[in-house]
Amino acid sequence: MSEKNMKSLTPEMFEFVGMNESAGEEMARERVGFWKDAVRRFRTNWGAMIGLFIILIIGFFAFAGPLMNGYDYESQNIAIQNMEPFEDHYFGTDSFGRDLWQRTWNGAQVSLQIAFLAALFDLLIGVTVGSVSGYFGGRVDMVLQRIVEILYSIPNLIIIILMLLIFEPGIIPIALALSITGWVPMARVVRAQILKLKSQEYVLAARTLGAGHRHILTRHLIPNVMGPIIIAVTFAIPSAIFFEAFLSFIGLGIRPPLASLGSLVFDGSKFLQIYPYQLFYPATVLCLIMLAFNLLGDGLRDALDPRMRK
Amino acid sequence: MDMIKYTLTRLGYMIVTLWIIVTATFFLMHSLPGTPLQNEEKLPPLIRDQIMETYGLNDPLPVQYMNFLGRLVQGDLGKSLTYDGRSVTEMLLEGFQASSFIGMQALVFGVVVGLFLGVAAALRHGGLLDNIATIVAVAGVSIPSFVMAGLLSYWVGVKWQLLPTALWGTYEHTILPSLSLSFFVIAQMSRYIRTEMVEVLDQDYMKTAKAKGLGRQAIIFRHALRNALIPAVTVLGPLAVNIITGSLVVETIFAIPGIGEFFVQSIQVNDYTLIMGVTIFYAVLILVTIFVVDILYGIIDPRIRLAGARE
């Protein structure tokens, strides 16, 4: 504003407004809470978005794929053994003439079911043990921590194999066997967080108002540990898929004619030199699922736990 | 003093853990359906009884258990039920030669490559190498070793005919199995080193080093890398365990006469003593590996005395 303009201003042009007491208290913008902030951070993470995208696509095919050609995963047809992809056998056929498209997506379905079930068991046991152990402390904590310590040091592969030797291998037994050791990391994470949170003022406030232990745990503490819990669950899924594949390899996984991605990769690797496509399709799907969940987990960690970000 | 106390406590835990594993394995194994006898229906009852008697399989379970524990303490794992009475200890030692060679080679190769990749990525923070390292890190964690094994043996072995795809004998036979196991190690190692290096490079003492007029190499290797290496040692344990686990399957794919092969077979034919032997062997191997790494960590990093390292 130039000197000349300034001179043209007259006192009449101004009006006395006074001070508005409440205006300072008003939010200028919409409130950005923890979850909103997390979603925003998550959205800008391209790795995580790719991961989510792959999971959605594979999830879609795992359930809709089997409907796309008229075959099923167990019918054998000797006339078309070991055929490379042709007509509507999009992935070709295996050594029994079974349609590989069907087997691959059915296998993906089985692998995902096992992984989600195992993650669910991990979640239930891990959160319960971890929160009880962290919140109550003392003798309860002592006992639970000794159990955790021993389970933690037993090689998980050995326990899993032993459990599957007695159970009949199927989706639920495999998921159970995986979570026998799988819940331990979850319990450790939750316990560490609860230990940190339980001395916060809001817990004291809740106690003072007469809230019971159960209420404090489920309404105040566990919701505040949700971030690390979600991250741990996301990483539990690829690990379960890996171990399931592993079990199929040593003959303790899903029993034929049912297939999982692991058993398909195993079958494929037997005829690798002659029919490489039998390995490549299921192996690609397996790797994509693992990749997607790892990317998603990394993204969630960045979004939900910005302090861990590096 | 703390160190000794910590070591002893850990040793105590190891023994308890091992005992639990042995006991659980023993009883679970005996609840398996079927017996270790081959062609059981065709065996005359007399011969059957005699075999059962020879191997002590007719005794009540608790007696068998006590006998087993007694022999175990003396380092005797018994005789295999399917390999014509060969001693399990002997078989394990034989198989371990192949397994350990492949495993160690994979670990060393993976750590060295991962180290270089991680350091390079951190120095070119945000650059091309950094992006490559990130991709390697994510891919290495996502592609299981047995898929790697399949891919390598197809491309390198079958398509390009560079290296043998299976069996055992010359040094060439060890390359592909080790490579497929080392991919995961490279991924994890480079990731850890990169994160630590980026953090360390940001520290005040790096500025001090620069201000003193030290050369770039001295700064990176003397000051940055040494501090970044310390946390990286902690991943060595889990990485070694991962290799041990992975070798079970990778050995099967490459038809290597290692322990993994015995293990897979012993489960399929109910060879009680061999299952026990391999399980115990793996358990000891894994427990000792983790133990050694934990102790190493305490020795290497003077800031973290072991009491703190436990949490």
UniProtKB/TrEMBL annotation, chain A:
Domain ABC transmembrane type-1 span(s) in chain numbering: 108-297
UniProt cross-references to Pfam families, sorted A to Z: BPD_transp_1 (PF00528), OppC_N (PF12911)
InterPro entries to which the protein is assigned, alphabetical: BP-dependent_transpt_permease, MetI-like, MetI-like_sf, OppC_N
GO biological process: peptide transport; protein transport; transmembrane transport
Chief place where the protein resides: membrane
Membrane topology annotation: Multi-pass membrane protein
TM stretches of this protein: 46-65, 114-136, 148-166, 172-190, 229-254, 279-300
Location(s), subcellular: Cell membrane
Gene Ontology CC annotations of this record: plasma membrane
Key words of the record: Cell membrane, Membrane, Peptide transport, Protein transport, Transmembrane, Transmembrane helix, Transport
Signal peptide span: none
Family of this protein: Belongs to the binding-protein-dependent transport system permease family. OppBC subfamily.
Protein name per its UniProtKB record: ABC transporter permease
Organism: Thermoactinomyces mirandus
